């Protein structure tokens, strides 16, 4: 979601406890759901966002699990080496890697 998107629209579109805010594909911040719920529906996401917290695409799952704990169990944004948002990793996926998994995202 972009920095100019109104909080009310982001709240309507997302069920996640954390909304990743991106501009031109790059992660620029995060907005917690509770901030969306408390905000004026017309407030742009850019005015509500926190600094981005993210994992790199080649980080080990234990790193992602630590970030998920910091984000109160919310999915962790994943970026590539250029800072482009690649996706999100669910906290449960980071906490319990499958047998035989090498631990990379």
CATH architectural designation: Roll
Order of strands, main sheet, comes to 3-4-5
Radius of gyration: 14 Å
Give me the count of strands.
Answer: 5
Low-confidence stretches: none
Q: What is the share of helical residues?
A: 25-40%
Rounded average pLDDT: 88
Percent in strands: 15-25%
**CATH homology superfamily:** CBS-domain
- What is the CATH fold-level name? CBS-domain
Number of helices: 4
Question: Into how many domains do the coordinates divide?
Answer: 1
Structural class: alpha+beta
Largest sheet: 3 strands, mixed
User: Termini separation (Å)?
Assistant: 23 Å
Top-tier CATH class: Alpha Beta
Gross morphology: globular
Order of helices and strands: HEEHEHEEH
Structural notes for this entry:
The chain is an alpha+beta fold and 105 residues long. The protein is 27% helix and 23% strand. It has a single domain, classed as CBS-domain. It contains four helices and five strands, in the order H-E-E-H-E-H-E-E-H. It has a three-stranded mixed sheet. Strand 4 and strand 5 form a beta hairpin.
Record keyword descriptors for this entry.
105 residues, CBS-domain, globular, alpha+beta, two-stranded antiparallel sheet, 3-stranded mixed β-sheet, single chain, 4 helices
């Amino acid at each position: 979601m972009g920095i100019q998107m109104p909080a009310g629209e982001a709240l309507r579109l997302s069920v996640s406890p954390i909304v990743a805010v991106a501009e031109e594909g790059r992660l620029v911040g995060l907005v917690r759901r509770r901030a969306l719920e408390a905000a004026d529906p017309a407030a742009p996401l850019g005015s509500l966002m926190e600094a981005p917290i993210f994992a790199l695409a080649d980080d080990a799952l234990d790193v992602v699990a630590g970030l998920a704990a910091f984000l109160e169990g919310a999915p962790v944004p994943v970026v590539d080496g250029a800072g482009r948002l690649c996706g999100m990793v669910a906290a449960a996926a980071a906490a319990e890697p499958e047998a035989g998994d090498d631990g990379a995202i």
